[in-house]
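Entry 14. Structure prediction run on the chain below.
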Amino acid sequence: MFFEKKRTQQIKESVQEVLEETLHKQEQIQLEQQMGQHHQVCESIEKNQKMIRKLSDTIEDFLDTLQEDNDETKQFQQSLKESAEREQRLVGLIALYQEQMDLLEQWINTQADGNADSNEHSKEAIQAWRQQYNMLKGQVSAESRLCAIENIGVEGESVDYRLHEVLQAIEAEEKEQEGIVAKVHSSGMLYKGKVIKKARVTAYKKG
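Output returned:
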């Protein structure tokens, strides 16, 4: 009886040892798993932090580039504005030159008409003036076309109030003359299809 109790006690102790060892191993396994998971979480956090820092640097670089682009765009727009203003001033200056040339042409014609009966020397002088003027006018016309500038206002064309400023209206001798430009006092100007200055004309009245 004594031996049976002792054996039973031994068996209980052995079972308890096995259970304790098994529990200990399970705790170690769980601890290792937790440590592994903790390591993975730490690695994941570190990777995310690196990605965030990299993304932050990228965004900062992008914002710097965007600011530089905005500054360059503003400078370019300002340059375009200044160029357009200079262009308008130059076109206005050319219009003034054209008006002076029209006045010069009228003066030459007046001198020629007034000296019809004068001496040969005066006629030669007027003819020289006319030749020089025609040469200059041809050069200006050629250069103007290259600059997209077009002179408007020709005797015999129909009146177009978008292009002509009628200073005087006279009676037409024939029906076909009605609404026609009779005389051009000063030429007009188109620049890139836009009216810069209307031609000043005398036109025949419409019936």
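The first strand starts at residue 149 and ends at 152.
Filed with the rest of this week's runs.
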